Amino acid sequence: MNQLQVLLHTALIDTGHIEKCGLLLRDTNQIKTTSVGYKLEQTDVDTLVNAFNQPTLLRKKGLYFNEIYYTCIRTDNESIYAKENNRGLVLIKTKVYILFGTFNDRMNPAIAIEAVEKLGEYFKAKEQ
């Protein structure tokens, strides 16, 4: 594992409340790193990076990511929360990255959101 994968696993996966996660580069729509073994399609990367560009449309139409249609439950300039039944997706925008994490029906949404938000705050503090 590279250093960023270790950070993702330590801060998110090891909580037991994040299923999969990743870090995407905002400027180039490229994957910086993901949780071990997680493969993203470029269309999914584009969807997540561009999600912050049209918040009103996102609230109305939701988000299709990783073959799941999510309903947007919160969006602002720096974060997006979305759900599909008992599954969820959290996105955090920083200066350089889009950080995301998914959780499933066996995981606590509040803890999942808090974990992703805290890691996002870490990157913001480092101006990344």
TrEMBL record:
Q: Does the keyword Cytoplasm apply?
A: yes
Note one Pfam family from the annotation.
Profilin
In its keyword annotation, does this UniProt entry include Endoplasmic reticulum? no
Which InterPro entries does the record associate with it? PFN, PFN_euk, PFN_sf
The listed locations are: Cytoplasm
User: Can you name a GO cellular component term?
Assistant: cell cortex
Q: Which Gene3D superfamilies match?
A: Dynein light chain 2a, cytoplasmic (3.30.450.30)
**Which keywords are on file for this protein?**
Actin-binding, Cytoplasm, Developmental protein, Differentiation, Lipid-binding, Spermatogenesis
Q: Which GO terms describe its biological process?
A: cell differentiation; spermatogenesis
Any GO molecular function: actin monomer binding
| Cross-referenced PANTHER family | PROFILIN (PTHR11604), PROFILIN-4 (PTHR11604:SF2)
What is known about what this protein does? Involved in male fertility. Required for manchette development and acrosome biogenesis during spermiogenesis. Binds in vitro to phospholipids, including phosphatidylinositol 3-phosphate (PtdIns(3)P), phosphatidylinositol 4,5-bisphosphate (PtdIns(4,5)P2), phosphatidylinositol 4-phosphate (PtdIns(4)P) and phosphatidic acid (PA). Contrary to other profilin family members, does not bind to actin in vitro.
Provide the family line.
Answer: Belongs to the profilin family.
Name the chain's protein: Profilin
Source species: Adineta steineri
